[in-house]
Structure formats: structure tokens, C-alpha cells
Write a structure and sequence with these properties.
279 residues; alpha/beta; Collagenase (Catalytic Domain); 5-stranded mixed beta sheet; two-stranded parallel sheet; 6 helices; 24% helix; binds zinc ion
Length: 279
């Protein structure tokens, strides 16, 4: 009987440890304040003869590594530096760079699992004003109770904090969350109305960017060659031809490698308007 109990307990422990956030999920949501802000923005799509403007800015990032209950970091500095090289490459066409100005280690392992209950405590105790605060923890739980690889707050929410699961440092999660932080929506966003395949109102629907194709949500319909295998149609009966490589999509992380011009233009707009106080 004791043996059976032991097996059950170790089984449960293994099961709980085995649960991790998945690719194709994200904890960032569009708040009511962000909808109001967006409704006041009128960003025209970049015309084919217009070149992308450049912002020539380097922003400071404060990194917080939360230690686990054994006092271990769970992530190494080299992996973070590699992720920053990729992050800077993603925004390089508008000459936007991010620089780690400080790295702090947090010994309180309660914060190694960030959720709605303890996030405010964490960001009240550990924050560096006028910089982007980047927190690495072992698990992140969103408002709905789902484990997520990362999340942040969009510009209207006025919080300079980005949260990343340590296990997702090698992929594109950091770039994806910096995109949200700088005003980009998911390519499949529908809170402003679903984008149509042929959409005359593309500035105001979907992700509010005209050069990102309408996206029905591509999680689970990308094969390992990065081909879209779905067959969804929009409300006008046209087949979707979504981008599989956009950083703001939620398909296969290994396929994500581009921001479009309209997205980068939106990033510049955010930096010049809602985030101009950042160093
Ligand atoms: Zn996201």
C-alpha cells in the first residue's frame, strides 16, 4: 500500500513538473485602455515608394533573474546575450537597439513563479524607472490561469515590464514580447474586427497593419517545413494566405523571422508618442 502511495505521489510530482508553457501561446492581452488608445491612432500604411524611417535609438533594459528554491539562476548570461543579439537584429532596419544596462538577481524564489497574485509585489520591489524591466522566471501564469512562455503590457497600460519563461530564451519569444511592448498586436488579433483577405479597411482591422496578410490563427497548421496547411476562409469566402514567418504570429516559433514595414512604422510611432520617456 505504501509502495502504491509512493508511486502515485511521484507520478503526480512528475506530471506537475512536466507541465510547461507551449509554443503557440502568449499571455499578452489587449486591454480596454489599449483599445481606446488605438481608436485615436491613425497610422497610414507605408506606400511602396516610401522608405521606412529610422529612429536611431538605443534603449536601456534592466534584467532581473529570479533564482529558484535551490538558489540557482536557471538561465545563463551567454544565452541572454545571444537573445539580445537576435532582438537587435530584428529591429535593426529602423536602427533601434536594446542594451542591458544592469542585471539583478532576485533571491526570493516565490517570484520564480509569476502570476496575477505576486506580479505587483515583484514589480513594486524590483523596478528601474525609465528603462524596460525584463524579468526571467521559471513559470508564468496568465490571468486565465494558463502557463505562457511570455507576456507584457501594451503601451496604454503604462507598465515597462516584460516577463519571459527562462526555458524560452533560445527562441523568438523575447522579440515577440518586445513587439507587443512597442505597440504590435498578434497578426490574428480580432478585437478590432477580423481582417479580411482583401481588406480595404486593413488599418483598422486585425493587427491594424496593412502589409501583414489576414491571419485566421495558425497554431497547429504549420508543418515542419514552415508551410501553412490550413484551409480556413474569411467571411467573404476567400481562403486565408497568412504569413507563417511573422514575429507577431503564433505558429511555429522556428519559422518566425520578420517584422513588416507597417509593423516597424508602428514601433517608431509608439516610441515617439507613448514611450518617449524611456532612456
Ligand atoms: Zn503575443
Amino acid at each position: 500500500m505504501k509502495k502504491l502511495l509512493f508511486l502515485i505521489i511521484t507520478g503526480i510530482a512528475f506530471f506537475l513538473n512536466g507541465i510547461k508553457a507551449q509554443d503557440g501561446t502568449c499571455g499578452t492581452s489587449v486591454s480596454a485602455a489599449q483599445i481606446t488608445l488605438e481608436n485615436g491612432i491613425s497610422l497610414l500604411p507605408l506606400k511602396s515608394y516610401e522608405s521606412l524611417s529610422q529612429i536611431n535609438t538605443e534603449l536601456s533594459v534592466t534584467v532581473y533573474i529570479i533564482k529558484d528554491d535551490a538558489g540557482l539562476n536557471g538561465i545563463d548570461g551567454a544565452a541572454i546575450n545571444t537573445a539580445f543579439t537576435k532582438l537587435n537584429a530584428a529591429f535593426s532596419s529602423v536602427k533601434l537597439k536594446f542594451r542591458i544596462c544592469n542585471t539583478f538577481y532576485i533571491n526570493n524564489y516565490q517570484f520564480n513563479s509569476i502570476n496575477v497574485q505576486n506580479e505587483k509585489d515583484l514589480t513594486t520591489q524590483y523596478i528601474s524607472k525609465n528603462t524596460i524591466n525584463l524579468y526571467f522566471a521559471s513559470t508564468l501564469t496568465d490571468k486565465e490561469g494558463n502557463l505562457v512562455p511570455g507576456y507584457t503590457y501594451m503601451p496604454a497600460d503604462q507598465a515597462d515590464a516584460i516577463f519571459i519563461d527562462k526555458d524560452f530564451i533560445a527562441g523568438n519569444e523575447l522579440i515577440h514580447q518586445f513587439g507587443h511592448f512597442l505597440g504590435l498586436y498578434h497578426t490574428h488579433e480580432i478585437i478590432f474586427g477580423a481582417a479580411l483577405v482583401y481588406d480595404a479597411n486593413c488599418m483598422k482591422t486585425g493587427d491594424c497593419c496593412c502589409d501583414t496578410p489576414a491571419d485566421p490563427g495558425i497554431t497547429g497548421v504549420i508543418d515542419n517545413k514552415c508551410d501553412y496547411t490550413g484551409s480556413a476562409k474569411d467571411s467573404k469566402n476567400n481562403f486565408y494566405v497568412p504569413s507563417i514567418n511573422n514575429y507577431m504570429s503564433l505558429g511555429n516559433d522556428a519559422c518566425r523571422c520578420v517584422f513588416t514595414n507597417d509593423q516597424l512604422n508602428r514601433v517608431i510611432y509608439t516610441l515617439k508618442n507613448q514611450k518617449k520617456y524611456l532612456w
